[in-house]
Amino acid sequence: MSGLQVKIGLECHCQVTSLKTKMFCRCSSDYRGKPPNVNVCPTCLGLPGSLPYLNRRAVEEALKVALALNCKINRKMVFYRKNYFYPDLSKNFQISQYDFPLAVDGYVTINVNGREKTIRIRRVHMEEDPGRLVYKGRIDTSPYTLVDYNRMGIALIEVVTEPDMESPAEAKAFLEELRSILEHLEVSDGSLEGSMRCDVNISIAGGTRVEIKNISSFKDVEKALAYEIMRQRNLLRMGREVKRETRHWDEVRGITVALRAKEEEMDYRYFPEPDLVPVEISDDFIEKVRSSLPELPSARRARLVEQYNLTEYEARVLTADKQLADFFEKLASIHGKPKVDCSVVINELLRLLNEKNIEVRDLKFTPKEVADLLFMVDEGVVSWKSAKYILRRMVETGEHPKKIAEAEGIRRISSVEEIEKFVSKVFEEHKGDVEAAIKDDKVIHRLVGEVLKETRMLADPKITFQVVSKRIRELRAERGLASA
Amino acid sequence: MARSELTITPELLDHLSNLAKLKLTEEEKRIFIRDLNRILEYFNVIDEVDTSGVDQVFHILGLTNTMREDEVGGEPLSQEQALSNAASKEEGYIKAPRMV
Ligand SMILES: [Zn+2]
Q1: What pTM did the predictor assign?
Q2: Is B72 near chain A, with CB under 8 Å?
Q3: Do A37 and B70 touch (CB under 8 A)?
Q4: Can you state the angle between helices A297-308 and A168-184, rounded to 10 degrees?
Q5: What φ, ψ does residue B90 adopt, rounded to 5°?
Q6: Do A257 and A166 sit in the same domain of this protein?
Q7: Is A264 touching B (CB cutoff 8 A)?
Q8: Which of A36, A265, A375, B72 could bridge across to A148 with cysteines, CB 3.0–4.6 Å?
Q9: ipTM of the complex, rounded to two decimals
């Protein structure tokens, strides 16, 4: 079955979270966490007599994105009305783009399992975000829909790809790269709920194209695609046809559901928005924006490898999240051991972030505190093992590592005399293991483990191993046995 | 300029009234088909003008780049004002029919 070729195209809707106001009115762009329908004005509601007024910074931000995605910029862009009746837009049309979008024909290079691949960008255009619909329970059984227009009119950048991705993993890699680019540009903060959403198109073996609408986070795209591929393959295997339709991703049940059975093709009757004049984009403006572009993820990866001697893989993990890469570079600048610092960030810290399902921004400490912890390790004050535990407590409490170590009696036991006391106790309590260890070296590790446990993992494992081995050798000598 | 091939047929009118969420009586349909086809004929007259070498016009004023700064302001509405025209509401939301 895996021989059937999968083709995936993405339409990504990214909020321009760097703006203070909406796209066409002066309402605040900070709509999250507010009571419903308090962040609106006659313009974003589309009340009679109101006129849209384009936010200059929104155009600049969108241009940054288009340039970062290697697109050709149209020197003249035009806004269009996309007409449809749906309660998420009270105007009954969305101001979007159609012919003459901001930019076309770009590309992004992704890397999946060490293999590079170019994903073509068909177009980048600007449009306004619709309002938010709230359902009672599930979308397909909700008795009615509740509408909140606070979000309506937020500036969106839509990035449309060609159907160049051939697996959910490639789609995920593309979205991660796009998110990282937007974060490095400081245009969109992907960690804000609902700031990056996706529609996907998928077809198998050149068959019918199915669209999955409104996947509310990039994280869910891979899951939705995996489900949809399985569903379509099952249909094909049973000799049934895949219907051309629009489906909805139900994140609670982890399945896609048909929204409208194929009726007529959606007909949006686009026409130029008569309330907005065209925007001419001069070469000067393009060059000004181009020269202000910050370091992008691909360049940063190359620099991380070069400057800190990291592997390509390490650089990739760090730059997948701008905040994580920033955290690493700050840590390395204070602690000064990049290989160790990178390992702490991508192995220990990242694992804790994933486990607790939080973002770097949610951490209640800075790289300085992590550096303090690593200095404690360097000075032999705490063991590596304890340091990992302390880092976990830091994530949980935000306390300084020194304070955690003090409060919990964490120190490093590396004095031979002190370790010998624990060894004596363990040898007394585990006579059977001691006898076994005298006969078989492999059992020594079990005894070392018991001693470490006895010290609450505070003892230096190497020294503990040496002390235990020495004791066993002495016991063998007493019995006239040669060491195994 | 080629004359428009477009004619309003009963099927096309049904499609359009569907998109516009309008229910038309048989009598209204008959009138619309007649009137819309007449309007299309006017466009055929316009189509006869030679526009080769004339740029496409998107806006009659000929203005470009009318933009504002990114500063909060304007005339925001209170929740009460925003909902004052809503036929049905619940806890600050506008209540709409089920969608699927
Ligand atoms: Zn507004």
Answers
A1: 0.84
A2: yes
A3: no
A4: 80
A5: -155, 120
A6: yes
A7: yes
A8: A36
A9: 0.90
